Amino acid sequence: MKLKKNIATSETGFIFNPATGDSFTANALATEILQLLKQDRSPADIKTLLLNRYDVEPNQLEKDWDDLVAQLRDHQLLD
């Protein structure tokens, strides 16, 4: 899973898709995930990092991950 190369993101959570002109605001955790995706980190690596960094149950992380990925796909932000 990769974020499209033309997608602009900021450290404050602003996301811009120049292909569609759409812009979005992400929360702090989604912003962190997007930055990791831009660094070509794999989903497995990102999930491991999140499980170690935050107090979250693996099942809840999987659900939240799936929700985020669905939103990114819906907004045409993923390759």
UniProtKB/TrEMBL annotation:
Entries under Pfam families matching the protein: PqqD (PF05402)
InterPro entries, alphabetized: PQQD, PqqD_sf
Protein name as it appears in the record: PqqD family protein
